Amino acid sequence: MTGQALNFPYFSYLGRWQTQRPLWLFGGFLTAALEIFSVLYFQKHLGLKPCLYCVYIREAMLVIAIGALWAALYPKFFLFRIPGYIVTIGGTLAGLVFSFKLESLNLAVRYWPDLYTPCPARSGFALGRRLAAKWPSHFQPAGECGVDTDWMFLSFNMSELLIIFYIFILVGLLLMLGAGLLRSRES
Asked: Which of 14, 41, 152, 185 is the most exposed place for a label (fewest CB within 10 A)?
């Protein structure tokens, strides 16, 4: 398939859009807002305690926000945009992996209780340990993985919604990156 075959207006529009600051700011502030929302709603309002995988998912959201805000500093410049892509895609993949792990524990609790093994209670990542020490209300694991499966929204539990969220972000990032690379190759 040649570049011309993929050059329909929406793909070309995505290639131009990635160099615009509002897109990166929106992505950065959205993920930061979701992390804060998770603390305020799930912890403070509902009284749910975050498990280790929940904390890792929050850390992934923080990484996505940092990558997006880095790219927003100067999105027209390739050397700001590419590290932004690398960090946001890395954070998205990490969040997706931990969301799948959390969902597998949710399924084990519901359907195969004999196969359920709780997640570790302490963060294994250096970043996580530092964040837990500095900001324990957000990043200190206090709950057990997979046991808070009663919360539902549109018939999805928390980990299923996060999987959808991370897939949506990943597809959007990869489409924009591909469109941007195709655009730069054609110029």
From this structure: 185
Residue 35 counted as domain residue:
no
Residue range 131-187, pLDDT digits in tens? 777 777 777 777 777 776 677 778 888 888 889 999 998 988 888 887 776 666 655
Is the pLDDT at 1 greater than 50? The verdict is no
Reading the block at residue 88, the tokens are: 């946001």
Residues 6+ apart with CB under 8 A from 54: 38, 102, 141, 143, 145
Task: Determine, yes or no, domain membership for 59.
Answer: yes
22 inside domain: no
Residue pair 64/85 in contact (Cβ under 8 Å)? The answer is no
Per the prediction, the chain carries an average pLDDT of: 79
- Domain span at residue 93 reads 48-186
State the Cα–Cα distance between residues 34 and 31, nearest whole angstrom. 5
Q: How many domains does the chain have?
A: 1
In degrees rounded to 5, what are phi and psi of residue 151? -70, 130
